[in-house]
Design goal:
Helix content: 25-40%
Number of helices: 5
Number of strands: 11
Shape: globular
Structural class: alpha/beta
Strand order of the largest sheet: 5-4-6-7-1-8-9-10-11
Length: 193
């Protein structure tokens, strides 16, 4: 999970990760391997996505996000098509989580099945990146039930500070918690640690 306020740069960061995975290369000083990416977008208009893909890919590419502008709307979390796709071992990016379920985010009872569906996709072979929103409360790094964080293997808070993006670990089952400061050049789509 990458949680952040509106305009913090979640989509830019996710699209830059998509670029690194699609054509190969580094992402935030980490080596990536080429992978199939399914980017599900119910958050952004086509014009914005086109502009960002022009910056990141320099024009048309093999990568095609599945957004609301497509004739067949992106599937909700729990759709059997996602499980079928997950078995191929892709990276699945969800932008943003609130748009892909109908549960009450503040209810652990309602969010548990949503998180279980995402876990099922990961168990089937997909790597899942979920973009999520930050709570309006200053004491929470993400919005909604504690079941959201409990169901994630890793969660990060993304914010802007002093002209930099700050990606701070709020949970990680696999590594130590860390904070990474990122210099973002949105005009060229580059993100450097």
């Amino acid at each position: 999970i990458i949680a952040g306020e509106a305009g913090a740069g979640k989509t830019w960061l996710a699209l830059a990760l998509t670029r690194a995975l699609t054509i190969g290369g580094d992402f935030l000083d980490r080596r990536t391997r080429v992978a199939q990416v399914l980017y599900l977008d119910k958050e952004n208009p086509l014009s914005l996505v086109r502009d960002r893909l022009q910056v990141l890919f320099g024009g048309a590419s093999e990568f095609r996000p599945w957004g609301l502008w497509c004739p067949d709307e992106p599937p909700m979390i729990g759709d059997p098509r996602l499980l079928e796709f997950a078995q191929q071992g892709p990276v699945l990016i969800v932008d943003s989580m609130i748009r892909f379920h109908s549960a009450d985010e503040n209810s652990a009872t309602q969010m548990a099945p949503v998180m279980a569906s995402l876990r099922e996709l990961a168990t089937a072979g997909a790597s899942i990146v979920v973009l999520h929103h930050k709570s309006k409360s200053e004491t929470s790094s993400y919005r909604g039930s504690s079941d959201i964080l409990a169901g994630a293997d890793a969660a990060f808070a993304l914010g802007r500070r002093d002209g930099l993006l700050e990606l701070r670990t709020i949970k990680n089952r696999f590594a130590a918690e860390t904070t990474v400061e990122i210099r973002a050049d949105f005009s060229t789509g580059t993100f450097s640690v």
